[in-house]
Protein backbone atom coordinates (compact mmCIF):
# COMPACT_ATOMS: atom_id res chain seq x y z
CA UNK A 1 0.00 0.00 0.00
CA UNK A 2 0.97 3.63 -0.33
CA UNK A 3 2.48 5.25 2.73
CA UNK A 4 -0.26 6.17 5.21
CA UNK A 5 -1.11 9.85 5.51
CA UNK A 6 -1.47 9.81 9.29
CA UNK A 7 0.35 7.63 11.81
CA UNK A 8 -2.14 8.23 14.63
CA UNK A 9 -5.84 9.03 14.41
CA UNK A 10 -7.78 10.35 17.39
CA UNK A 11 -11.56 9.99 17.08
CA UNK A 12 -13.15 12.21 19.73
CA UNK A 13 -16.88 11.76 20.39
CA UNK A 14 -18.60 14.60 22.24
CA UNK A 15 -21.45 12.46 23.51
CA UNK A 16 -24.83 13.95 22.48
CA UNK A 17 -23.49 17.18 20.92
CA UNK A 18 -25.81 17.19 17.90
CA UNK A 19 -26.05 20.00 15.38
CA UNK A 20 -29.68 20.09 14.28
CA UNK A 21 -32.60 17.77 13.56
CA UNK A 22 -31.93 14.97 11.08
CA UNK A 23 -34.10 14.45 8.01
CA UNK A 24 -35.89 11.60 9.76
CA UNK A 25 -36.30 13.40 13.12
CA UNK A 26 -40.08 13.36 12.66
CA UNK A 27 -40.05 9.57 12.94
CA UNK A 28 -38.60 9.96 16.45
CA UNK A 29 -40.72 12.91 17.57
CA UNK A 30 -37.62 15.11 17.46
CA UNK A 31 -38.54 17.79 14.91
CA UNK A 32 -37.00 21.12 15.91
CA UNK A 33 -34.25 19.65 18.08
CA UNK A 34 -30.86 21.37 17.84
CA UNK A 35 -28.45 20.73 20.69
CA UNK A 36 -25.68 23.17 19.72
CA UNK A 37 -28.06 25.83 18.44
CA UNK A 38 -30.25 25.87 21.52
CA UNK A 39 -27.30 25.81 23.94
CA UNK A 40 -25.97 28.88 22.11
CA UNK A 41 -29.35 30.58 22.46
CA UNK A 42 -29.44 29.80 26.18
CA UNK A 43 -26.11 31.61 26.55
CA UNK A 44 -27.40 34.66 24.64
CA UNK A 45 -24.21 35.01 22.63
CA UNK A 46 -21.86 34.39 25.56
CA UNK A 47 -20.87 30.81 24.69
CA UNK A 48 -17.08 31.01 24.36
CA UNK A 49 -15.60 28.03 22.50
CA UNK A 50 -12.73 29.62 20.51
CA UNK A 51 -10.95 26.37 19.63
CA UNK A 52 -14.08 24.65 18.35
CA UNK A 53 -14.84 27.89 16.53
CA UNK A 54 -11.41 27.89 14.85
CA UNK A 55 -12.03 24.27 13.86
CA UNK A 56 -15.24 25.45 12.11
CA UNK A 57 -18.01 24.28 14.48
CA UNK A 58 -20.33 26.98 13.11
CA UNK A 59 -19.33 26.56 9.47
CA UNK A 60 -21.20 23.26 9.28
CA UNK A 61 -24.53 24.89 10.08
CA UNK A 62 -27.10 26.84 8.05
CA UNK A 63 -27.40 29.21 11.01
CA UNK A 64 -24.31 29.80 13.13
CA UNK A 65 -24.33 29.08 16.85
CA UNK A 66 -25.23 32.30 18.63
CA UNK A 67 -22.01 34.04 19.66
CA UNK A 68 -19.86 31.59 17.67
CA UNK A 69 -19.15 33.00 14.23
CA UNK A 70 -18.27 30.97 11.17
CA UNK A 71 -14.57 31.14 10.32
CA UNK A 72 -13.42 32.68 7.05
CA UNK A 73 -10.25 30.59 7.18
CA UNK A 74 -11.09 27.58 9.35
CA UNK A 75 -8.35 25.42 10.78
CA UNK A 76 -10.14 22.14 10.07
CA UNK A 77 -12.12 20.50 7.33
CA UNK A 78 -15.76 20.28 8.28
CA UNK A 79 -19.10 18.64 7.58
CA UNK A 80 -22.01 16.76 9.14
CA UNK A 81 -22.96 13.11 9.33
CA UNK A 82 -26.40 11.49 9.06
CA UNK A 83 -27.31 8.36 10.99
CA UNK A 84 -28.82 5.33 9.23
CA UNK A 85 -29.12 3.08 12.29
CA UNK A 86 -32.64 2.35 13.47
CA UNK A 87 -32.11 3.93 16.89
CA UNK A 88 -30.54 7.03 18.42
CA UNK A 89 -28.69 5.49 21.34
CA UNK A 90 -24.95 5.70 21.99
CA UNK A 91 -24.48 2.10 20.92
CA UNK A 92 -26.15 2.75 17.55
CA UNK A 93 -24.04 5.82 16.89
CA UNK A 94 -20.68 4.36 17.90
CA UNK A 95 -21.25 1.05 16.13
CA UNK A 96 -22.23 2.87 12.96
CA UNK A 97 -19.06 4.98 13.13
CA UNK A 98 -17.13 1.71 13.20
CA UNK A 99 -18.94 0.45 10.08
CA UNK A 100 -21.50 -1.66 11.93
CA UNK A 101 -24.80 0.22 11.63
CA UNK A 102 -27.65 -1.17 13.72
CA UNK A 103 -30.23 -2.24 11.17
CA UNK A 104 -32.28 -4.61 13.34
CA UNK A 105 -34.84 -2.87 15.51
CA UNK A 106 -34.00 -3.47 19.15
CA UNK A 107 -36.44 -3.97 22.01
CA UNK A 108 -37.98 -0.87 23.58
CA UNK A 109 -40.18 -0.70 26.66
CA UNK A 110 -42.39 2.42 26.62
CA UNK A 111 -44.79 0.78 29.10
CA UNK A 112 -42.17 -0.79 31.34
CA UNK A 113 -40.59 -4.24 31.26
CA UNK A 114 -42.54 -7.50 30.95
CA UNK A 115 -43.25 -9.21 34.24
CA UNK A 116 -41.37 -12.35 33.22
CA UNK A 117 -38.11 -10.36 33.01
CA UNK A 118 -38.76 -8.68 36.35
CA UNK A 119 -39.54 -12.01 38.00
CA UNK A 120 -36.23 -13.47 36.81
CA UNK A 121 -34.32 -10.42 38.11
CA UNK A 122 -36.10 -10.69 41.46
CA UNK A 123 -35.33 -14.40 41.75
CA UNK A 124 -31.66 -13.92 40.84
CA UNK A 125 -31.04 -10.87 43.05
CA UNK A 126 -33.31 -11.73 45.98
CA UNK A 127 -34.61 -8.17 45.78
CA UNK A 128 -37.98 -6.72 44.85
CA UNK A 129 -38.21 -4.22 42.00
CA UNK A 130 -39.67 -0.71 41.95
CA UNK A 131 -39.90 1.87 39.18
CA UNK A 132 -40.37 -0.08 35.95
CA UNK A 133 -41.15 2.80 33.61
CA UNK A 134 -39.42 5.23 31.26
CA UNK A 135 -38.02 8.03 33.41
CA UNK A 136 -35.16 10.44 33.96
CA UNK A 137 -32.53 8.74 36.11
CA UNK A 138 -32.08 11.62 38.52
CA UNK A 139 -35.84 12.00 38.91
CA UNK A 140 -36.52 8.36 39.67
CA UNK A 141 -33.62 8.20 42.15
CA UNK A 142 -34.96 11.30 43.90
CA UNK A 143 -38.41 9.69 44.04
CA UNK A 144 -37.45 6.15 45.06
CA UNK A 145 -34.00 6.47 46.64
CA UNK A 146 -35.26 6.75 50.21
CA UNK A 147 -37.52 3.75 49.61
CA UNK A 148 -34.46 1.81 48.45
CA UNK A 149 -32.59 2.80 51.61
CA UNK A 150 -35.44 1.37 53.70
CA UNK A 151 -36.15 -1.79 51.72
CA UNK A 152 -33.13 -2.66 49.57
CA UNK A 153 -35.39 -2.91 46.50
CA UNK A 154 -33.86 -2.47 43.04
CA UNK A 155 -34.77 0.65 41.08
CA UNK A 156 -35.27 -0.48 37.49
CA UNK A 157 -36.23 1.92 34.70
CA UNK A 158 -35.76 2.64 31.01
CA UNK A 159 -35.81 5.55 28.53
CA UNK A 160 -36.65 6.14 24.88
CA UNK A 161 -33.65 3.99 23.97
CA UNK A 162 -33.18 0.23 24.06
CA UNK A 163 -31.86 0.14 27.63
CA UNK A 164 -32.49 -1.43 31.02
CA UNK A 165 -31.13 0.82 33.78
CA UNK A 166 -30.67 -0.39 37.34
CA UNK A 167 -29.97 2.20 40.03
CA UNK A 168 -28.51 1.24 43.40
CA UNK A 169 -27.30 3.15 46.43
CA UNK A 170 -23.75 1.97 47.02
CA UNK A 171 -24.37 1.86 50.78
CA UNK A 172 -27.21 -0.66 50.34
CA UNK A 173 -26.26 -2.59 47.21
CA UNK A 174 -22.47 -2.73 46.72
CA UNK A 175 -21.20 -1.92 43.24
CA UNK A 176 -19.95 -5.45 42.60
CA UNK A 177 -23.38 -6.88 43.49
CA UNK A 178 -25.02 -4.36 41.14
CA UNK A 179 -22.65 -5.40 38.36
CA UNK A 180 -23.51 -9.08 38.89
CA UNK A 181 -27.21 -8.29 38.63
CA UNK A 182 -26.62 -6.29 35.45
CA UNK A 183 -24.55 -9.10 33.96
CA UNK A 184 -27.43 -11.47 34.62
CA UNK A 185 -29.89 -9.01 33.08
CA UNK A 186 -27.60 -8.86 30.05
CA UNK A 187 -27.87 -12.64 29.66
CA UNK A 188 -31.68 -12.40 29.48
CA UNK A 189 -31.94 -9.95 26.59
CA UNK A 190 -29.53 -11.08 23.90
CA UNK A 191 -32.38 -12.32 21.69
CA UNK A 192 -34.35 -13.69 20.08
CA UNK A 193 -37.44 -12.65 22.08
CA UNK A 194 -35.87 -9.55 23.61
CA UNK A 195 -32.77 -7.86 22.22
CA UNK A 196 -31.66 -4.87 24.28
CA UNK A 197 -28.81 -2.55 23.38
CA UNK A 198 -27.46 -1.76 26.83
CA UNK A 199 -27.89 -2.69 30.48
CA UNK A 200 -26.69 0.30 32.49
CA UNK A 201 -25.57 0.06 36.11
CA UNK A 202 -26.36 3.39 37.81
CA UNK A 203 -24.71 3.52 41.25
CA UNK A 204 -25.32 6.54 43.47
CA UNK A 205 -24.65 7.72 47.01
CA UNK A 206 -26.48 9.82 49.59
CA UNK A 207 -28.86 9.48 52.53
CA UNK A 208 -31.76 11.74 51.49
CA UNK A 209 -33.34 12.76 48.19
CA UNK A 210 -31.59 16.12 48.48
CA UNK A 211 -28.15 14.49 48.65
CA UNK A 212 -28.46 11.61 46.17
CA UNK A 213 -25.60 11.83 43.65
CA UNK A 214 -24.72 9.38 40.88
CA UNK A 215 -21.11 8.19 40.96
CA UNK A 216 -18.49 7.47 38.31
CA UNK A 217 -18.98 3.72 38.89
CA UNK A 218 -21.57 3.61 36.10
CA UNK A 219 -20.97 0.65 33.81
CA UNK A 220 -22.62 -0.19 30.49
CA UNK A 221 -23.14 -3.85 29.64
CA UNK A 222 -23.67 -3.56 25.89
CA UNK A 223 -24.86 -6.08 23.38
CA UNK A 224 -21.76 -7.68 21.90
CA UNK A 225 -21.01 -6.38 18.41
CA UNK A 226 -22.93 -8.45 15.89
CA UNK A 227 -20.05 -8.35 13.42
CA UNK A 228 -16.54 -7.05 12.98
CA UNK A 229 -15.86 -3.36 13.52
CA UNK A 230 -13.19 -0.99 12.26
CA UNK A 231 -11.23 -1.65 15.45
CA UNK A 232 -11.29 -5.40 14.86
CA UNK A 233 -9.87 -4.99 11.38
CA UNK A 234 -7.18 -2.56 12.58
CA UNK A 235 -6.22 -4.89 15.42
CA UNK A 236 -6.00 -7.89 13.09
CA UNK A 237 -3.63 -5.94 10.82
CA UNK A 238 -1.33 -5.06 13.72
CA UNK A 239 -2.38 -1.48 14.37
CA UNK A 240 -2.89 -0.39 17.97
CA UNK A 241 -6.43 0.37 19.13
CA UNK A 242 -7.17 2.40 22.25
CA UNK A 243 -10.55 3.09 23.88
CA UNK A 244 -11.12 6.00 26.27
CA UNK A 245 -14.32 6.34 28.30
CA UNK A 246 -17.37 4.19 27.63
CA UNK A 247 -15.91 3.00 24.31
CA UNK A 248 -14.78 -0.13 26.16
CA UNK A 249 -18.32 -0.82 27.40
CA UNK A 250 -20.07 -0.06 24.10
CA UNK A 251 -17.92 -2.57 22.23
CA UNK A 252 -17.67 -5.08 25.11
CA UNK A 253 -13.87 -4.55 24.90
CA UNK A 254 -13.90 -6.21 21.48
CA UNK A 255 -11.18 -4.94 19.15
CA UNK A 256 -9.55 -2.78 21.85
CA UNK A 257 -5.92 -3.26 22.93
CA UNK A 258 -5.79 -0.64 25.66
CA UNK A 259 -8.70 0.88 27.60
CA UNK A 260 -9.22 3.75 30.03
CA UNK A 261 -12.28 4.43 32.21
CA UNK A 262 -13.33 8.06 32.61
CA UNK A 263 -14.41 9.58 35.91
CA UNK A 264 -15.48 12.75 34.07
CA UNK A 265 -14.84 14.72 30.88
CA UNK A 266 -11.73 16.27 32.40
CA UNK A 267 -10.45 12.88 33.51
CA UNK A 268 -11.07 11.68 29.99
CA UNK A 269 -9.01 14.54 28.59
CA UNK A 270 -6.23 13.60 31.03
CA UNK A 271 -6.27 10.15 29.40
CA UNK A 272 -6.13 11.77 25.95
CA UNK A 273 -3.08 13.79 26.99
CA UNK A 274 -1.47 10.57 28.27
CA UNK A 275 -2.18 8.64 25.07
CA UNK A 276 -0.92 11.51 22.92
CA UNK A 277 2.43 11.23 24.72
CA UNK A 278 2.70 7.57 23.67
CA UNK A 279 4.45 6.46 20.49
CA UNK A 280 2.08 4.20 18.57
CA UNK A 281 0.62 3.64 15.14
CA UNK A 282 -3.13 3.24 15.09
CA UNK A 283 -6.43 4.60 16.33
CA UNK A 284 -7.60 6.06 19.64
CA UNK A 285 -11.41 6.21 20.06
CA UNK A 286 -12.60 8.57 22.81
CA UNK A 287 -16.00 9.26 24.36
CA UNK A 288 -16.72 12.17 26.70
CA UNK A 289 -20.08 11.40 28.31
CA UNK A 290 -20.72 14.32 30.69
CA UNK A 291 -22.51 16.39 28.04
CA UNK A 292 -25.09 13.62 27.78
CA UNK A 293 -25.31 12.13 31.27
CA UNK A 294 -24.90 15.27 33.35
CA UNK A 295 -26.66 17.91 31.26
CA UNK A 296 -28.52 16.59 28.21
CA UNK A 297 -30.78 14.09 29.97
CA UNK A 298 -31.20 16.51 32.86
CA UNK A 299 -32.26 19.27 30.44
CA UNK A 300 -29.68 21.73 31.71
CA UNK A 301 -28.51 23.95 28.81
CA UNK A 302 -26.36 26.17 31.04
CA UNK A 303 -24.44 23.22 32.45
CA UNK A 304 -24.15 21.79 28.95
CA UNK A 305 -22.63 25.02 27.65
CA UNK A 306 -20.19 25.22 30.55
CA UNK A 307 -19.07 21.66 29.81
CA UNK A 308 -18.47 22.69 26.19
CA UNK A 309 -16.39 25.67 27.30
CA UNK A 310 -14.40 23.54 29.74
CA UNK A 311 -13.74 21.00 27.00
CA UNK A 312 -12.71 23.75 24.60
CA UNK A 313 -9.90 24.80 26.92
CA UNK A 314 -8.53 21.26 26.94
CA UNK A 315 -8.99 21.02 23.17
CA UNK A 316 -6.47 23.84 22.85
CA UNK A 317 -3.88 21.65 24.58
CA UNK A 318 -4.66 18.73 22.26
CA UNK A 319 -4.17 20.92 19.19
CA UNK A 320 -0.85 22.21 20.56
CA UNK A 321 0.39 18.68 21.30
CA UNK A 322 -0.50 17.15 17.95
CA UNK A 323 2.35 15.77 15.87
CA UNK A 324 2.67 16.54 12.18
CA UNK A 325 1.29 13.13 11.19
CA UNK A 326 -1.59 13.07 13.71
CA UNK A 327 -5.23 13.39 12.65
CA UNK A 328 -8.02 14.57 14.96
CA UNK A 329 -11.65 13.85 14.08
CA UNK A 330 -14.29 15.37 16.37
CA UNK A 331 -17.91 14.24 16.16
CA UNK A 332 -20.91 13.08 18.26
CA UNK A 333 -23.02 9.94 18.47
CA UNK A 334 -26.49 11.58 18.55
CA UNK A 335 -28.13 14.70 19.97
CA UNK A 336 -29.56 15.39 23.42
CA UNK A 337 -31.04 18.86 23.17
CA UNK A 338 -31.15 20.15 26.77
CA UNK A 339 -34.03 22.51 25.90
CA UNK A 340 -36.21 19.84 24.29
CA UNK A 341 -39.26 18.04 25.67
CA UNK A 342 -38.77 14.91 27.76
CA UNK A 343 -35.37 13.61 28.80
CA UNK A 344 -34.32 11.35 25.91
CA UNK A 345 -31.73 11.59 23.14
CA UNK A 346 -32.71 13.58 20.06
CA UNK A 347 -32.30 12.40 16.45
CA UNK A 348 -29.85 14.92 15.01
CA UNK A 349 -27.06 15.18 12.50
CA UNK A 350 -23.67 15.29 14.18
CA UNK A 351 -20.69 17.57 13.55
CA UNK A 352 -17.59 16.40 11.75
CA UNK A 353 -14.40 18.40 12.34
CA UNK A 354 -11.17 17.00 10.88
CA UNK A 355 -7.78 18.54 11.61
CA UNK A 356 -4.10 17.71 11.14
CA UNK A 357 -1.08 20.02 11.37
CA UNK A 358 0.03 18.70 7.97
CA UNK A 359 -3.18 19.68 6.17
CA UNK A 360 -2.77 22.88 4.19
CA UNK A 361 -6.39 23.95 3.76
CA UNK A 362 -9.91 23.50 5.02
CA UNK A 363 -12.32 21.46 2.91
CA UNK A 364 -16.11 21.34 3.13
CA UNK A 365 -16.84 17.62 3.50
CA UNK A 366 -20.58 18.16 3.09
CA UNK A 367 -23.26 16.06 4.72
CA UNK A 368 -22.10 12.46 4.89
CA UNK A 369 -24.79 9.85 4.21
CA UNK A 370 -23.78 7.64 7.15
CA UNK A 371 -21.66 7.76 10.28
CA UNK A 372 -19.74 4.86 8.71
CA UNK A 373 -17.81 7.35 6.56
CA UNK A 374 -15.89 8.08 9.77
CA UNK A 375 -14.65 4.50 10.06
CA UNK A 376 -14.14 4.06 6.33
CA UNK A 377 -11.71 6.99 6.38
CA UNK A 378 -9.72 5.44 9.23
CA UNK A 379 -9.41 2.12 7.43
CA UNK A 380 -8.47 3.85 4.18
CA UNK A 381 -5.67 5.71 5.92
CA UNK A 382 -4.13 2.50 7.26
CA UNK A 383 -4.74 0.51 4.07
CA UNK A 384 -7.03 -1.95 5.82
CA UNK A 385 -10.05 -3.59 4.20
CA UNK A 386 -13.30 -3.44 6.15
CA UNK A 387 -17.00 -3.85 5.41
CA UNK A 388 -17.29 -1.03 2.82
CA UNK A 389 -20.36 0.36 4.53
CA UNK A 390 -19.05 3.91 4.39
CA UNK A 391 -17.28 6.20 1.94
CA UNK A 392 -13.80 7.45 2.85
CA UNK A 393 -13.09 11.17 2.69
CA UNK A 394 -9.35 10.65 3.14
CA UNK A 395 -8.52 11.88 -0.37
CA UNK A 396 -10.46 15.10 0.31
CA UNK A 397 -8.04 16.06 3.08
CA UNK A 398 -5.24 18.23 1.76
What is the fold's blueprint, element by element?
Layout: E1 8-14, H1 35-42, H2 50-54, E2 77-81, H3 90-97, H4 115-125, E3 129-134, H5 137-151, E4 154-158, E5 163-169, H6 175-188, E6 198-205, E7 213-214, E8 219-222, H7 230-236, E9 240-244, H8 247-250, E10 258-260, H9 265-276, E11 282-288, H10 290-296, H11 301-321, E12 326-331, E13 350-355, E14 364-368, H12 372-382
Parallel strand pairs: 1-11, 1-12, 2-14, 3-4, 5-6, 9-10, 9-11
Antiparallel strand pairs: 2-13, 4-5, 6-7, 6-8, 12-13
Helix pairs in contact: 1-11, 4-6, 9-11, 10-11
The strand count comes to: 14
Number of helices: 12
Helix content: 25-40%
What is the first-to-last residue Cα distance?
19 Å
Amino acid sequence: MEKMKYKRIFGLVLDSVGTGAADDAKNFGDEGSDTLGHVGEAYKGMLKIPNLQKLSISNIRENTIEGVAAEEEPLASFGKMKEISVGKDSMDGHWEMMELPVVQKLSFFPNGFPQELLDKLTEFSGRNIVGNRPESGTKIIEELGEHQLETGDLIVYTSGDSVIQIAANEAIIPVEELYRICEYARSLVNGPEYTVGRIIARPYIGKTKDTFTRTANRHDFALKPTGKTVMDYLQEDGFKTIGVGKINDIFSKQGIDEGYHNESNMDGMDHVDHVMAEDFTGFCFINLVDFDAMYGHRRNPIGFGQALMDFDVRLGTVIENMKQDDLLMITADHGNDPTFKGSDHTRENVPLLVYSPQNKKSVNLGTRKTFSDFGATILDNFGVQGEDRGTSFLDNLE
